[in-house]
Design a protein that fits this description.
4-stranded antiparallel beta sheet, Elongation Factor Tu (Ef-tu), domain 3, alpha+beta, 34% helix, 22 strands, elongated, 6 helices
């Protein structure tokens, strides 16, 4: 049986009615969906603007940074060995001196020459100078033995290192000992020169102290000639330059008064004052980088000696600090063009490298924060663009970066300077 026309008409009407309902529904639901979406966008939290840093692999070092100054390694303080009157000195800082050049003339005071105590003191000074010379010569002999022993040890370690017989650390340690021994020998030899000079000065003072008083009394002209004949000539103990002249004018002076300072300004060292808690991390032989000294290129050096005694120094904030002097040598040993303009007492900024490595996974320290007893960062989720709280393990750290042991991989991106508005899962975007 075929359906009637009425049935077909009724079905078509029903389909048309359903379509109208769907259209009317879409007409109502579409504005509602749009309004709902706009409301959600209006009230939904916006992504937090953040700065991102990258986890990278590369060289890293830890340094102790402090101010220091250059100074002449061997400074000779020339003082008067007896009481008298010094004639005017025509010397200026920077004048070149040869060993044996006259640097000062002293006319002894007559009353001091007649004083038995002055003569006894002069004899005692000679004895002390002779003992100091003997001690200095013994120090040279000991230093020579140390140099020969350390040189043999370093040569042996170098040969063993070539066949993997010793570690890099052992080789570097033997090299440091050898370099330290050579510097000690140089200082001991300078000490012998100074002891010889002091002995000659003490003998000259004794000679003047034992001068007999002439009889009968001399006239003024005769006294002037006598003073000139018995005047004490002080000569330069080394080849060098005048560093400082406290007073050039002729004047009376007491025994021990400083006349001038002499040294070789091309033979410089660096004296760096570091905090005592930093000094315990420093070892002889560690490299030093000198910056902000006036030139464009940094200058390199090496720690030679850490003084065993600390001293108290008041900081710029008025805080008492215990500081230790660290002495370093320029590298290479001969003075190069970079430091040609440096002189005695020049200010420098030194970075003492106490640890370094060439291939270290590192994260910016500004991304780190403590979570309990562990370190953590917010890692940037590249897929969901959300902050992911990640605990990590670090080892070495400097003011800029920290060595990552676990928890991050190379090319991870982390949030720098995370604030209180960021928690695990917070939507974030990089600040442009």
């Amino acid at each position: 049986m075929k359906p009637s026309n009425n049935d077909e008409s009724s079905g078509a009407h029903s389909d048309h009615s359903s379509q109208n309902k769907v259209i009317r529904f879409l007409k109502w639901i579409t504005p509602i969906a749009v309004v709902t979406g706009l409301l959600y966008l209006a009230i939904a939290p916006k992504p937090v603007q953040v700065d991102l840093g990258e986890v990278v692999r590369g060289p890293m070092e830890i340094t102790i940074d402090d101010e220091g100054e250059t100074r002449v390694r061997e400074r000779y303080l020339i003082s008067s060995p007896l009481t008298g009157r010094v004639l005017r000195m025509n010397l200026e800082p920077g004048d070149i001196l040869q060993k044996g050049d006259r640097i000062a003339t002293i006319i002894p005071e007559a009353s001091s020459l007649l004083d038995p105590r002055a003569r006894a003191q002069a004899k005692a000074l000679v004895s002390a100078a002779e003992a100091a010379l003997t001690h200095a010569e013994e120090q040279v002999e000991l230093a020579i033995v140390d140099v020969e022993t350390s040189e043999k040890s370093h040569r042996r370690n170098t040969e063993l290192h070539a066949v993997d017989g010793v570690t890099d650390v052992a080789l570097e340690a033997s090299e440091r000992i050898f370099l330290t021994a050579r510097h000690t020998l140089h200082a001991a030899e300078s000490g012998v020169e100074l002891a010889w000079f002091e002995l000659e000065q003490a003998k000259a003072a004794l000679l003047h102290a034992e001068r007999d008083t002439p009889e009968p009394p001399l006239t003024d002209d005769q006294r002037a000639e006598d003073d000139e004949a018995w005047s004490l000539i002080i000569e330069s103990p080394i080849d060098g330059q005048v560093l400082r002249v406290p007073e050039k004018s002729s004047r009376p002076l007491q025994a021990g008064t400083l006349l001038l300072e002499i040294g070789n300004p091309e033979d410089l060292e660096i004296a760096i004052e570091v905090l005592s808690q930093d000094a315990v991390k420093i070892m002889p032989g560690q490299p030093i980088r000198i910056e902000h000294w006036g030139g464009q290129m940094p200058i390199f050096g090496q720690v030679r000696h850490i003084e065993p005694s600390a001293f108290t120094k008041i900081s710029a904030l008025g805080v008492d600090e215990q500081r230790v002097k660290v002495l370093a040598d320029f590298e290479p040993p001969p003075r190069d063009k970079h430091q040609a303009e440096l002189g005695d007492g020049f200010r420098v900024e030194a970075r003492i490298v106490i640890w370094k490595a060439n291939n270290v996974l590192q994260v910016p320290t500004s991304a780190l924060f403590r979570m309990g007893d562990r370190w953590a960062v917010f890692r940037f989720g590249a897929h969901d663009r959300r902050a992911q709280l990640t605990t990590i393990e670090i080892d070495h750290r400097n003011p800029d970066v920290a060595e990552v042991i676990s928890g991050l991989t190379e090319s991870d991106r982390v949030v720098l300077h995370p604030g209180g508005s960021i928690t695990d899962g917070t939507r974030i975007e990089e600040r442009r």
